[in-house]
Amino acid sequence: MIFIEAYYSIGEISRLFGMSIQTLRYYDRLGLLRPAHINKESNYRYYSHGQFLQIKLIKYLKTLGFSLAEIQSIVNQDLSPRAIIQLLREQEEAIDGKISELVSLRHDVGAFQERLSNLVKHAPEEAFLETKPERKVIAYDYIKRPDANLAVGIRKILVDIERDRSVLRYEPGVLVSYSQFASSGRVEFEKVIVELDDESGYARNSILRFPAGSYATLVYEGTIEEGANHYGKIVEFMSERKLQPRSEVIHAVAASYVSGDGTGIALNEVSVRASSPNQQKPATLP
How many CB atoms lie within 10 A of CB 12? Predict the structure, then answer.
């Protein structure tokens, strides 16, 4: 008896396996799943019954998270049960790594959401007193030149950080001399700072710690260069309540976003550690 192998059109394969025609054509271009026969006159693609297992394997490997390049390598080799077990072990390790990354990302998203929620609940540009946990920052000296542009200077510093740490969880900020501004109204940048969750890999003398405690705080929308318009409100708030400054002005950019017309906007947080006159000044700098 002679068996004639049945062929199935690309549309039939699409319906049988729940795959779009576009996907099947893409797999053909990649060389991952070539039709068993192509009609030279109509250019119609046909697949054989013998390819059903290959199609099922491709779909299954894709559900397991293998990339198309990895799937192509797998289906183009002779596999034994032991080889399949090893492939699955390797994929299991890769999935565990992705889960760890997602858990970390979920933590970052939640922390960022909580931080923004705490800021936006206060009236903008009005100083208030709040209790903050300890914060750690990596600090870089700010070198002032006549032609210096703060945003460009910060960007140059961030390039160095991002070279070692591909993703920064926090926006950069600056330390401003409180005494200089309070006495003369002059803004003197002392450090460029970036808040840290993990201080490993940084020199200890480049890390500053801001202790937990009460901070006179103000939130505003605008550029970091506009901070001078708001530092005075912090100084006035401290003076009215007879609070003593226990830190420099800590100017952090809480978030950056873009308005509908494409203009860049930043949510800025300006804070100074404050205490009543009879409280002892804690050491904050190394």
Answer: 12
Residue 276 pLDDT exceeds 90: no
Q: Are 222 and 266 in contact (CB under 8 A)?
A: yes
pLDDT digits (tens, 9 = 90+) for 235-248: 999 999 999 999 99
Phi then psi for residue 262, to 5 deg, are 90, 5
Strand 249-258 and strand 172-176: the pairing is antiparallel
Phi first, then psi: what are they for 189, rounded to 5°? -75, 130
Q: Where are the domains of the chain?
A: 7-77, 86-119, 122-275
CATH class of 7-77: mainly alpha
Contacts with 178 (C-beta within 8 Å, 6 or more apart), sequence order? 235, 245, 247, 248, 249, 272
In 233-269, which positions are buried (b, 16+ CB within 10 angstroms) versus exposed (e)?
bbbebbeeeebebbbbbbbbbbbeeeeeeeeeebbbb
Whether the Cβ atoms of residue 247 and residue 208 lie closer than 8 Å to each other: no
Gyration radius of the chain's alpha carbons: 30
State the number of CA atoms in the 13 A half-sphere of 141 facing the CB: 4
Task: Classify residue 283 as exposed, middle or buried by CB count within 10 Å of its CB (0-12, 13-18, 19+).
Answer: exposed
CATH class of 122-275: alpha beta
Q: In this structure, are residues 185 and 232 in contact, taking their beta carbons and an 8 Å threshold?
A: yes
Q: pLDDT for 72-83, tens place per residue?
A: 988 888 778 888
- Residues 171, 193 contacting (CB under 8 angstroms): no
Contacts 24+ apart (CB under 8 A), 93-99: 94/65, 95/65, 98/65
Which residues does 281 contact at the CB level (< 8 Å), separation at least 6? Answer: 244, 246, 275
* Beta bridge pairs of residue 178: none
* Dist CA 78 CA 98 (whole Å): 28
